[in-house]
Amino acid sequence: MKIKKIVSFFLAGIMLLSFSGCEFIENLPFFTKDEPDEPPVIETPEVIEPVDPNWPVSVFGTEIEKAPEKVAVASPALAEYIYDMDLMENVVAVSEFCGFAGAISYPSIGSVRLPDMEAIKEAEPEYILTFSAYEESLLIEIQQMNITVINIEAPESLDELRALYKEIALFFKGAVDGVSFGEDYVSEYDSALSAIAYSGEQKTAAFIRALDYMMITGGTMEQELLSAAGIKNAAEAYSGYTFPEENWKEFDPAVLFVNTDLHLIDLETNDLYKKKTAVKGDKVYNADIDVLALGSMRSFDILKNLLATLYEDYTGGTVLEPAYPSMYKQQ
Questions:
Q1: How many C-beta atoms lie closer than 10 Å to residue 24's C-beta?
Q2: What's the whole-number mean pLDDT along residues 39-44?
Q3: Which of 31, 134, 188, 203 is 20 to 30 A from residue 271's alpha carbon, by CA?
Q4: DSSP reduced 3-state for 232
Q5: Which string of DSSP letters, residue by residue, matches 46-81?
């Protein structure tokens, strides 16, 4: 009798399972289908690239994305400023007619008016810096080489030159390092100029760039340099590099400095100059007057020689020899 009851309970259990079917089994907490175990999710921390505070930088009206690696300079004066700042490391070519020390060691890309396109192509600069604009057809050809040409305004005063030095520093060094580098260089430049100055009684001289009336006048960077050095310019009251013809009778400085392509004989045979005191007394000296127009460190050497020639007690430069030959005396 007990056996029959057990069998009855067993059959009832089987029937119950058949009614609930798979739903019951699926709801069991330990039951899983034949699904693969998913691997644990490991979150990888985001890699943040360090930000370079120097780049990009906006300079000369151009956005410079990264430090320039290959630069060509198409203006001699601009190349000289960069050389003075000791920033030639990434300069791969320069303009023809550069006069700074060591310029010959850099490949030439010609001039803006007569560029050497093959040399530009070979140098492969990212940028060409220039004071003068290329003709449009040449500019397009250069741009097709994937080169950015940056036109820069040439400085006409010492303040503009100081500002340019700071811009050059930004271009090569970036937004942060460039600021400190530029300020340090301008301080160095001003200290060098101050160290040249003569503090004694000033003498008057004139600085002839070309015959007949073309000379250094007021309102020029050269005049600022002369004043800072302690030299009185006979044409300081005038402007435009021209002494007024109507005032020529009053022009009679004791000393004349003339550009390197002029000599005493040129003035002795010139009706405007031959009766002037400096010409009659052989007080005419050759100096590279055009270099003064740059305002570069090389111009400081010219100033020192001018000072040594004017002032006997100035020992910072070399006394210049008279600008012979002369029609009266040969040397």
A1: 12
A2: 73
A3: 203
A4: strand
A5: PP-PPP-TT-SEEETTEEE-S--S-EEE--HHHHHH
Residues 185, 162: Cα–Cα separation, whole Å: 9
The whole-angstrom separation of Cα 308 and Cα 255 is 13
**For residue 5, pLDDT beyond 80:** no
Q: What is the fold of 198-310?
A: Rossmann fold (3.40.50)
* CA distances for 241 relative to 140, 157, 208, angstroms: 36, 14, 9
- The CATH homologous superfamily to which domain 57-195 belongs is Nitrogenase molybdenum iron protein domain (3.40.50.1980)
Structure tokens at 294: 């740059």
Residue range 73-127, pLDDT digits in tens: 999 999 999 999 999 999 999 999 999 998 999 999 999 999 999 999 999 999 9
Query: Can you tell me the distance from the alpha carbon of 221 to that of 168, in angstroms, rounded to the nearest whole number?
Result: 19
Name the pTM for this structure: 0.84
If we measure between CA atoms, which residue out of 249, 281, 259 comes closest to residue 208?
A: 259
Quick check: 44 pLDDT over 80? no
Q: Which amino acid is at 204?
A: T
Where do runs of H (alpha helix) occur along the chain? 2-26, 76-84, 117-123, 136-143, 158-173, 177-196, 221-229, 264-268, 277-280, 289-292, 297-310
**How far is the C-alpha of 249 from the C-alpha of 245, rounded, in Å?**
9
The Cα 267–Cα 278 span in angstroms is 10
Q: CATH topology of 57-195 equal to that of 198-310?
A: yes
Buried/exposed code over 87-108 (b: 16+ C-beta within 10 A; e: otherwise): bbeebbbbbbebebeebeebeb
